[in-house]
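Let us practice reading a record.
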Amino acid sequence: MLRELSIANLALVERLRITFDHGLNILTGETGAGKSIIIDALGLALGGRFSSEMMRSDAETLFVEAVFELERPEVFRETLDELGIPLEEDGLVILSREVAQGGRSRCRINGQTVTVQLLARVGSLLLDIHGQNEHQSLLSSDKQLAILDAFGGEELSRAGSELATVYHRWKEIRESLARLDERIEERTRRLELLNFQLQEIREAKLKPGEDEALQQEREILAGAERLYAAAAEGYVRLYGGDEGGSILDQLATVQRALESATGIDPRLESIATMIREASYQAEEAAREIRSYRDSIAFDPERLETVERRLDDLAKLKMKYGESVDAILTYADGIDEELQEVGNREERREALQAELIGVQQRLAELAMQLSALRRAAGERLSEAIGEQLAELNMGRTTFKAALERVADSEGLPMDDGVFAVSAHGVDRLEFMVAPNVGEGLKPLMKIASGGELSRMMLAIKAILAEVDAIPTMVFDEIDTGIGGRTAQAVAEKLLLIAMARQVICVTHLPQIASLAHQHLFIEKTSDGERTHVEVRSLELGHRVDELARMLGGAEVTETTRQHAREMLSLAERLKLNRVGRRI
């Protein structure tokens, strides 16, 4: 369960810490008081999307932290271990996120830095947020199919995973065959181009690194005169100058002078040794310079040959690569492509043979998955019908209707060729008849906002029984409802809260009266800045808040008395219908 939520610099919140309890946690407050900020903070802590408008003005960073206490750590330990996340001995999982100006996030789980994707993955195991407009997603066929698959359990999940794997291979084979079956004219033109390019490269007789070696040789040939002059001058200065004028002669003179003086001061001996070694080095350098000077060749014809070769290489580089090595690599690629084209028929036959087997297996899995979904659909239809009856929609008939869409390019099966995806061949439509005597029609064509809200609540209640998510958040699930329906929704939320923690933002006093913990959100001002505060209401303040929700701006003794009666009825309901307090 979510034990604590800390927020800093989010919208109007400068710094806030909220403690949650077991059971049904209700958040109320005036319109615009900041209830949505709490939901936004939870979303960010669970890896949700950040926008710059969320940052409190003048703040450098935004920070949110959600502390979860796992009542059954063993359920999550294996998953967290696989993700490399340590689980504390006290069963705590702490998700935190710091967002700087510009949107850069730093996410942590139990102090360990993680990606925002991993934060979201772990968060999805701990808490499920049902936003104000999420019930609209119930109209999507893909969302409906995901709901059915989630309800179907582990067997359906395994079948779906295997089908997805086989489908992706089936799709890859078909795409490969399509590429092999390009138009003959295009393939012929491609072959002609490849053969021309390969012939041009081979006729050039390139060698790895040739361009770099030729460029260096060109520099030496073009600068031969300067190189000879430099070497000659160096040799003369070292060795070949006038008597006593070369560097070697001067070093010898210094050496003799120092050696003759060592008898007077032995300290000069080490210096004389250095001069003697320097003389040896200079003499060796003089020999090397002379040898280099004598090796320099003045060869204009060779220079012209090198220049022509470099020009030829430059033309090839413009077509095929930035260097000779890149051109050779390109040629290797041409070879491979030509071999692939040459083996086209052989590859096509192999792919066709594989396609037959994969396609047959995909059809088998699609049929198995459809059968599992039909069985799950019947159970789901019955379960939703029971839930809707408890939500004051007892006359409503609900059916999860599966169908297939014909597609000549799809998956061949025993009874036709159907469109297929990684989710199989099934298309799901939630069908509803709100009143007795009316025919079933697609949910999207007949459901009102209030009906959609109750549909989603019914589905959430059912899925809560098959998943392990310990905390569910409902943001204004009461959209478009009131009266007896509001009471039915309130009681349904209470029943869900007996099995897991529920956090609910509401405007309805019927729902608020059933809270195990009632949190009141309000805006305050110190004259300079506006702040959002959250406080847990005790009995007296709960009466005042329910009276406000019942009577609007004006709270009277009559509305207070009505509020007291609601709280008294709520306590009896918790004991009588639910059977225990939390």
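A brief commentary: The chain has 19 helices and 17 strands.
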